[in-house]
């Protein structure tokens, strides 16, 4: 069974690598979405969306992975919002963040700031790229796999909060992650976000 799953994981990694290559190389804003297609993190890249998403999904020099904000195992879709000029990024990122965060708290460690007004209407993503095969998404959505994984992730997040400097500040920044993952009965135990 473990050997069969290992072969499947290799196929999943190959699929993900191919899908990352299909992402735009343009600069802009992106949303990482979970197995249900719900955005969980909004970011921006002035080096190219493809390059930044690759770092997130391979844990290479990615703050959101290093700080335990997201579990790459949960990322099944990427929405891309490319722009022509870097000057467009702050307003677009803040607008995408505000729209999605209002629907369900995002796992970003900080809120993007912008001077001026947010966009009145959020543009549709130029690309929505599926990062996992349909069958793998179906398997990972199984609560028997997903819930223990999420509990383990919360444990790593709590451990990280307890071991980093200025833990109180980090706890407040990480609260949205726990709010997304914890059952509602446990949320009153979390620091205010």
Describe the structure.
The chain is α+β, with helices and mostly antiparallel strands and 193 residues long. It has one domain: GIY-YIG endonuclease (3-Layer(aba) Sandwich), CATH 3.40.1440. It contains seven helices and four strands, in the order αββααβαβααα. The protein has helices at 2-22, 49-58, 63-66, 89-103, 134-140, 143-163, 167-181; strands at residues 28-33, 39-45, 77-82, 127-130. Strand 1 and strand 2 (39-45) form a beta hairpin. The mean pLDDT is 82.
What are the key terms here?
alpha+beta, 7 helices, globular, 4-stranded antiparallel beta sheet, 193 residues, GIY-YIG endonuclease
CATH architecture label: 3-Layer(aba) Sandwich
The secondary structure category is alpha+beta
Tell me roughly what share of residues is in helical segments.
Answer: 40-55%
| Tally of helical runs | 7
Mean pLDDT: 82
The CATH class assignment is Alpha Beta
Number of strands: 4
CATH domain topology: GIY-YIG endonuclease
CATH superfamily: GIY-YIG endonuclease
Determine the N-to-C terminus distance: 42 Å
Radius of gyration: 17 Å
H-E string: HEEHHEHEHHH
